[in-house]
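User: Structure please.
Assistant: Input sequence and predicted structure:
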Amino acid sequence: MKKLTLFLISCFCLISCDDELQERSNNVEFNDVSLLNSVVENHILPEFAIFRLAVEALGESKDAFIAEKTEANLVSLRSSYLQAYNSYQAVAKYDFGLAKDINYAQNLNLHPFNLNGVTDFILNQENQNLESILTQDRQGFPAVDYMLNGLAATDTEIVAFYTGNNAEDYTTFLSRIIDRIEALTIRVDNDWRSGFADSFTNQNGFIDIFVNGYIQYFEKRLRSSKIDFPTGKFDGTPSPETIESFFRPEESRGLLLEALESSRLLYIGVGENSTSLSSVLVGLGEEGLDAQIRLRFLEAQNLINSLDANLAQQVATDNSKMLDARDALQEIVRLLKVDLVSILNITITFQDNDGD
């Protein structure tokens, strides 16, 4: 478990190195600023706005549950958690600026949740620092999943943890991890809206950082974390416990689909007049490559839709279908990481450890 967690952390590390028409060394021309402005205005800012509202609603549901610890309020809190977790999938792609500096993605969604000594961890919180890299696998949405779904088999038994002998400890920990999700999200959202968006769209070099970040997210945190690790793609040993929402596994496919769809929309853009990676390729006369990428996204969606909603169950019953979906995602990685960047004359700057 510890080795897997450290490998996940390493996979998450992004190594990153105009307001006018750019001319690159191979005479490829496209408007960097138009593309980045569209990404910020049509994707990053609205997606963070939606996620922030979902996280605030999660905090309100948590407060209601703490005020009155009933099964009905637990069900309501669980619904808010799932809505926020799904909304998170859209903003997980943007590991830039403050988000990168504070390890936002790792603090919110490093899975699997570390179960080793978890009871002692909760009962001795005064000795635990959630800002430490060593506790990233003990917080965020995987931790909320455990606290709402993994403590016991029934809602009655789960509520008992918040009303029994150690109620204060469990209540405090639940509050801490949800409040931290909200606090970190507010910080990152405010960072985009208080100047970083302007820097992102107007400073030289951000087009390379954006494209590298998008591809690295898709390869490492979408394909690898969500499918490669559960299927045992790297070591031949399936690890279904590494899926997202492990303690409510029937939601795991939905989270994967949310991540894939948000990645597809970022590629194709929103609105007829928006600039996107897709429209840039078409503008450069690369309609064939654009059509291939669009098709591969749809093929991957169809394959994932055919999987069991519980990805752990899918791994256990027919792992080959998961691997087929993985191969479809890998084809998108190849088109983006080899063909797209070649056309745009962008160099991949993050570490490649599994080949293409």
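The beta strands are 22-23, 29-30.
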